[in-house]
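Ticket reopened. Same input as before:
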Amino acid sequence: MNTIYEECIKACIECMEACNHCYDSCLKEEDVSMMAGCIRLDRECADICALAIKSMQSNSPFAKQICQLCADICEACGNECKKHEHDHCQKCAEACFRCAEECHKLAA
Amino acid sequence: MNTIYEECIKACIECMEACNHCYDSCLKEEDVSMMAGCIRLDRECADICALAIKSMQSNSPFAKQICQLCADICEACGNECKKHEHDHCQKCAEACFRCAEECHKLAA
Amino acid sequence: MNTIYEECIKACIECMEACNHCYDSCLKEEDVSMMAGCIRLDRECADICALAIKSMQSNSPFAKQICQLCADICEACGNECKKHEHDHCQKCAEACFRCAEECHKLAA
Amino acid sequence: MNTIYEECIKACIECMEACNHCYDSCLKEEDVSMMAGCIRLDRECADICALAIKSMQSNSPFAKQICQLCADICEACGNECKKHEHDHCQKCAEACFRCAEECHKLAA
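Engineering reply: fixed in the latest deploy. New output:
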């Protein structure tokens, strides 16, 4: 595999997992209404991470552009998650910001 | 395109649209907690419809199996949606049941 | 559904179908080697169209950015497809350029 | 995260990576025509692995059914890949069979 992508793929895999887990957990919280923004962004973020992973693993000519977009969505998701005290939200925020950083580096 | 798939692709496209719209609308309802099951199944259903469409449009050797699974998920989503009085839920239920029927026919 | 997206969703659905069909047809051509670039871009283009459709149908806050990226990939795919004389490639190129135009309009 | 899924998610992630890499490598081989079946199944397999991962990570009520389908597609992809001597095909076949095994276990 193309090794320039290694760190970024790893960060995207971890972010995708954190977002899918946070999505599931938010849907099970008592006050789902408060988590609506988080649910929506978790889904967006998990989906764009999946696309970024696929693009890097298959050497897409658009890998950098997809990672640029992924960075933007990760940041938005991280900013929403960090507002909530739930452990799954805090961990998700961390994974999102780390992923945004790796995606930015790659897209630069 | 392979014409045996035509009706089923059409039903999947309509179901995917109804589910994505219902998903968005549920997240904006006042009582999101009541809609948690609907949100989750709308997402599952929109995603499997998208995969079924891709598999039929590209003549996948697994198109029938994917449509069989799509039928099951459409039925589950339709059953959840029809419990709720919101217009977007009722319309989504209809689209889900119609899609389940077409997918069953194709998979048979 | 959000009507500002109507034309763009329609163009994306037609482009996705044309790309998936072209992908399948290219894999069945006698000289697959000549079609390698087309196969790759058909896949990329069908996948980003699917994401753009989902983002518009669910009112994603990133719909415009996703459509901007979709426009770029559609143009690249259209430029590759129009080099080939096969009917499926020529039709795919047309669908790609029309979709690129609608996505550009939306993203503007 | 739900730990009953841990091994299966790991196998799906490795299989998805092997399939995406094999897909890219097949498109760059001298004789692409011979690789057409492999290219097609690599794509199918990478896509269903991605869906299986998402379903397990988000505790989908359909995770088992999706993994059952994933197992079938992994086996078909592994059987095609193992016919070819390229290193990327042999490695992909291994990852596919390992993933099929984990998915079967989970779906049982």
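Residues 46 and 85 of chain C are 20 Å apart (CA to CA). Residues 6-28 of chain C form the longest helix (23 residues). Please confirm and we'll close it.
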